[in-house]
Amino acid sequence: MTQKLKEEYRRKVASVDEILNTLKSGDEIVAALGASEPMEILGKLHNIKDKIDNITIWCTLSTQNYKFFSELGMKDVFTTKSWFYSAPIRVGHKLGNISYQPGHLHNITNRKLDIGIPNVFIGTVSPLDKHGYVKSSLSVLYEKEFMEKADLVIMEVNPNFPEVHGDTQIHISEIDYFVETNRPVPELPRDILSEKDKTIGEYVASLVNDGDTIQLGIGRIPDAVAQAFMNKSDLGVHTEMITSSMADLAKAGVITGKKKNLHQGKIVGTFAFGDKELYEFLDNNPSIALLRGSYVNNPYIISQNDNMVSINTALQVDLTGQVCSESIGIMQYSGTGGQSDTAIGAIHSKNGCSIIALYSTVKDDTISTIQPYLTPGAAVTLHRNDVDYIITEYGIAPMKGRTVRERVDNLIGIAHPDYRKKLREDASKLGII
User: Smallest Cα–Cα separation from 78: which of 151, 116, 29?
Assistant: First the structure.
């Protein structure tokens, strides 16, 4: 690294308190999502609540209960918004401190920029290299678009973050301030898979062929699906989130990307979140391409891969195939994310398909996830026209090319046995069977 770069970097290094003093009333701030959140800055943001007024901040898939949204009395100063809820954000929502912004992942950035440009961007990057670049590391979902439009760009620089290939490079000249940190990278612990998970995984795997390109969601069911793929070969990946289970498949030689039409040989994603082993796998791995969400999740781009299979989970489905994956009734639980993007892309792919997998019941079998109609207020995350298969631990219900009556029969067939009779009675009363 040249002396000039070293001097420029040192001039831009500041403490968190110094950074907070640069913020002013009326600022609109976008924070990088998930593991890429600037935790040191956000962790102290509440300290300026008596000095400023009317700050808007966007936090998505947050990993921490930051005081500016998780304590009472904050919403008069901080207007917090989110495109995707996590457990900490749900806490803030219940307190009235956070509001959800609906949107499809592939165009949330452009739609936001159309109505107003946030003037501050904050995120996390890997250290400066000898050429004067840092890497946005674990996410470029929306980060670079907002960074490029912001008046003030602030980055926490952390040597523990992996250097990930793709559209991740940022030149030092594009950043106004650096905050040096050495905190651990947030991890997403793995859950122990149940027999129910494994059964669902096997059903999903039966619909996926060698050489297919896959998109997987997050959670125990997608992890079980990945485990069931261990006997597959030459799978490709074009996904929203790169997960620990995908790294397992790649290291096992299952994922090669040889048959992909687009980005052959590359594991394509827009952000990554998982365990330490995932981050080690991503670090300087030339097979990884982390690209912008506006590109990766564009259904037209997704459809260019033949044999594209979208695999996602849901909270509830109705007997006609409508899917709710983001709310419990009216209460926002997560977000639309890229589910609709990937499903629509997959069904327009040559020989592609869209799969929804979920448990047949929740709360110790006391509630069926298959209902005559969605709970009032529930968001329709995925339209019934965009679902090819719905899967539970009781089997596979084909939706593609099926009438409503056929869908009802198929879905009752994969419902928990304790609820099938009542579902059929309700369907009859509704006149859909």
Answer: 29
Instruction: Band the pLDDT of 1: cuts 50, 70, 90.
Output: confident
Please tell me the distance from the alpha carbon of residue 171 to that of residue 176, in angstroms, as a whole number. 11
Task: Examine the pLDDT at 284 and tell me if it is beyond 90.
Answer: yes
**Of 37, 143, 156, 240, which residue is the catalytic one?**
240
The confidence band for 82, taking pLDDT boundaries of 50, 70 and 90, is very high
Q: Which of 262, 345, 269, 361 is nearest to 309 (CA)?
A: 345
Element (H, E) at 283: none
Match domain 195-430 to its CATH number in 3.40.50.2000, 3.40.1080.20, 3.30.70.1060, 3.40.50.12280. 3.40.1080.20
Has 240 been annotated as catalytic? yes
How far, in Å, CA of 153 to CA of 178, rounded? 9
Topology agreement, domain 8-180 and domain 195-430: yes
Sequence length of the chain is 433
Q: Judging by DSSP bridges, how do beta strands 395-398 and 389-392 pair with one another?
A: antiparallel
Summarised one tens digit per residue, pLDDT across range 319-374 is 999 999 999 999 999 999 999 999 999 999 999 999 999 999 999 999 999 999 99
Q: Please report which confidence band the pLDDT of residue 302 belongs to, taking 50, 70 and 90 as the band edges.
A: very high
Both tokens of 13, joined, read 């290094």
- Give the residue from 270, 256, 352, 356 showing the smallest Cα distance to 303: 352
Q: What confidence score (pLDDT) does residue 140 get?
A: 98
Boundaries of every domain in the chain: 8-180, 195-430
> Are 35 and 272 contacting, i.e. CB atoms less than 8 angstroms apart?
yes
pTM recorded for the entire structure: 0.95
* Distance in angstroms (rounded) separating the CA atoms of residues 424 and 433: 8
Please report the DSSP string for 203-251 in residue order. HHHTT--TT-EEEE-SSHHHHHHHHHGGG--SBEEE-SEE-HHHHHHHH
Sign of the torsion formed by the C-alpha atoms of 331, 334, 337 and 342: negative
State how far the Cα of 273 lies from the Cα of 223, in Å rounded to an integer. Answer: 13
Give the tokens for residue 89. Answer: 């954000």
Record the tokens describing residue 351, joined without a space: 């020989």
CATH superfamily of 8-180: Glutaconate Coenzyme A-transferase (3.40.1080.10)
